[in-house]
Design goal:
273 residues, mainly alpha, 13 helices, globular
């Protein structure tokens, strides 16, 4: 029965991975703690191990066919992710679980508030009342690959730095790093939302979390059976999520996801006080 639950968790994580390009760990880690009674380090390692296989490859193919994946830039991000993962894993196993849980809880809270668009309200009001030009749709004006036409391509090392930062967070908190990559690509690199999600998801298909998984395993934190069942579920879920992401807006789903993150944040703080 537990294996079926791991499989279903993988499907749910895969849907979010394909929909938002976030790797799925942001769902897996708190769920493994709340539903399966894992400690945070075992949850982190299991989540990262589940994402070592290219579980979102069918989602990437769907985005690629829609013209939304920049393979070259995804590879540079993946390189940074691999290096950052080692640093994040070392940090995670060398600080107290209580501190790590509180940091993770604060991170979940921040992301939840971001999904509720709390941090964008002031900007929207400013544009509405003080800007003479109306804001355009979030996916335009865009070039062929989803980048604003008047914005030059960034150098390769900029993508490596994005991956490096995301890799440190991924290694510490058991996520694929997409939760860091997507907002940066949108806000600083001027990608469209769908282009950012597709590029992030493509970068996560290489085994970029391997350094962290090895570090966790050396310290006795890894559940391979759980990781295997979750990975199988993620393959299907990522394909479903990418189809939704290509064809449908996800505002309502994002609000539900934000509520989930808020609940998990409170649970983790209470559990490690």
């Amino acid at each position: 029965m537990e294996q079926i639950l791991f499989l279903l968790l993988g499907v749910a994580a895969g849907i979010l991975s394909g929909l938002f390009g976030i790797g799925g760990g942001i769902v897996m880690v708190p769920s493994l703690i709340a539903l399966f009674g894992m400690d945070i380090l075992n949850a982190n390692s299991t989540s990262l191990a589940a994402m070592l296989l290219p579980v979102g490859i069918f989602g990437v193919i769907a985005y690629y066919k829609a013209g939304l994946v920049n393979i070259k830039e995804s590879l540079w991000i993946a390189l940074g992710l691999f290096a950052g993962s080692f640093v994040g894993g070392e940090l995670a196993v060398n600080i107290s679980e209580s501190v790590l849980a509180k940091l993770y809880s604060g991170f979940l809270l921040y992301i939840a508030l971001s999904y509720f668009e709390v941090f964008t309200k002031i900007g929207e009001l400013r544009r509405k009342y003080f800007s003479k030009t109306k804001s355009s749709d979030s996916y335009s004006p865009l070039g062929v690959m989803g980048r604003e036409e008047n914005n030059p391509a960034k150098p390769f090392w900029a993508f490596i730095l994005v991956g490096l930062a995301a890799g440190v967070f991924a290694g510490m908190f058991g996520k694929g790093g997409g939760i860091i990559i997507v907002p940066i690509l949108i806000s600083l690199f001027h990608y469209s939302g769908k282009m950012a999600v597709a590029t992030s998801l493509a970068a996560l298909q290489l085994p970029v979390g391997l350094p962290s998984v090895l570090i966790y395993a050396e310290n006795g934190y890894l559940n391979l059976i759980a990781a295997a069942f979750i990975a199988v579920g993620m393959v299907l879920g990522a394909l479903i999520g990418s189809k939704i992401g290509i064809n449908l807006p996800a505002k309502t789903f994002k609000k539900v996801f934000a509520v989930f993150l808020l609940l998990m944040s409170v649970y983790m703080v209470a559990g490690y006080l």
